[in-house]
Write a structure and sequence with these properties.
About 40% of the residues lie in helices and about 15% in strands. The protein has 11 helices and 8 strands. The chain has an 8-stranded mixed sheet with strand order 1-2-4-3-5-6-7-8, with helices on both faces. The protein starts with a strand and ends in a 9-residue tail after the last helix. InterPro entries: AB_hydrolase_1, AB_hydrolase_fold, AB_hydrolase_sf.
Length: about 290
């Protein structure tokens, strides 16, 4: 089943899988990419959950009439509209949210805002929002990855680095889709707008420590975009003390690179988030 949710950013495509009576799960992908990035783990997730897979505006089957408007903060608003439609049209009143990179940032913001009562758990996979703002990071986001002329040359090499081992059909398919991005002006414009938004003063989490729900934080030890020893450490310190934190031997997209390992941690958590987060201590990164 496929739904289309109209938003100010464009029509957002949402694919629906699993039985209507199963616990609900929303999947939010990284930038660039689309919902197909989760294909390697989708069958296992949908077997246990009513799973909703979003394509961000301008990616996959979603539209973006004005690509420059697609910023992280507006993605939060668009995702909130998706949750509203799921509640109104499908009766989804409670849902877990799994997000990678900017999708992880959006998941946190949803849990901070008016949708907090409906969100039962978060799975944050190398989430954005925990990078320290400096003159260098702002310059990189705005003037390098935020400028189409420069980003066009860097987006594919960067994807090759953050995708890690191209050892699964899913990760190879994600890489091939990214290779097409430099020649797609609209997708490239969306990609750059989101990067520029990461340097915006309004970008950021209010106080992650007060999030009152179970959280599983998964981080790739070899992530070159948001490094585990910097951003990952800041995330572990900022999130609630009961957050279950796991360091994985992957790059930026563990579900793509090591779907088996990703599911080994994610499925038990989603089955009973409060029991798992209460019974297990967070893991700590090994010293290098």
């Amino acid at each position: 089943m496929r739904m289309t949710v109209p938003t100010p950013l464009g029509d957002i495509a949402v694919r629906c899988y699993g039985a209507p009576g199963a616990p609900a799960l929303l999947l939010l992908h990284a930038n660039p990419g689309d919902g197909r990035d989760y294909d390697a783990v989708l069958p296992a997730l949908a077997d246990r959950h009513r799973t909703f897979v979003v394509d961000w505006p301008g990616y996959g089957e979603s539209t973006a009439p004005e690509p420059q408007l697609v910023t992280p903060e507006r993605l939060v608003e668009a995702a909130g509209q998706v949750l509203d439609v799921l509640a109104e049209e499908l009766g989804v009143r409670e849902i877990s949210v799994l997000g990678n990179s900017v999708g992880g940032y959006v998941a946190c913001r949803l849990a901070e805002g008016r949708h907090a009562p409906s969100i039962t758990a978060l799975v944050l996979v190398d989430p954005a929002g925990f990078t320290r703002h400096t003159a260098l990071t702002r310059w990189f986001c705005r003037e390098v990855m935020g400028r189409p002329g420069r980003a066009r040359r860097l987006v594919v090499p960067l994807a090759r680095a953050y995708l890690g081992r191209l050892g699964t059909p899913s990760v190879r398919a994600t890489y091939e889709r990214t290779r097409q991005l430099p020649e797609d002006a609209r997708r490239l414009a969306v990609h750059c707008a989101i990067w520029r938004g990461l340097a915006d003063p309004v970008f950021g989490l209010a106080d992650p420590a007060v999030l009152d729900l179970p959280i599983l934080l998964l981080w790739g030890r070899r992530d070159p975009v948001v490094p585990a020893f910097l951003d990952g450490r800041r995330a572990r310190r900022a999130l609630p003390v009961r957050t279950l934190s796991v360091l994985l031997p992957t790059a930026h997209e563990p579900y793509n690179e090591r779907p088996d390992l990703f599911l080994r941690h994610t499925l038990p958590f989603l089955k009973d988030p409060r029991a798992v987060s209460a019974s297990r201590r967070p893991s700590r990164p090994r010293r290098r």
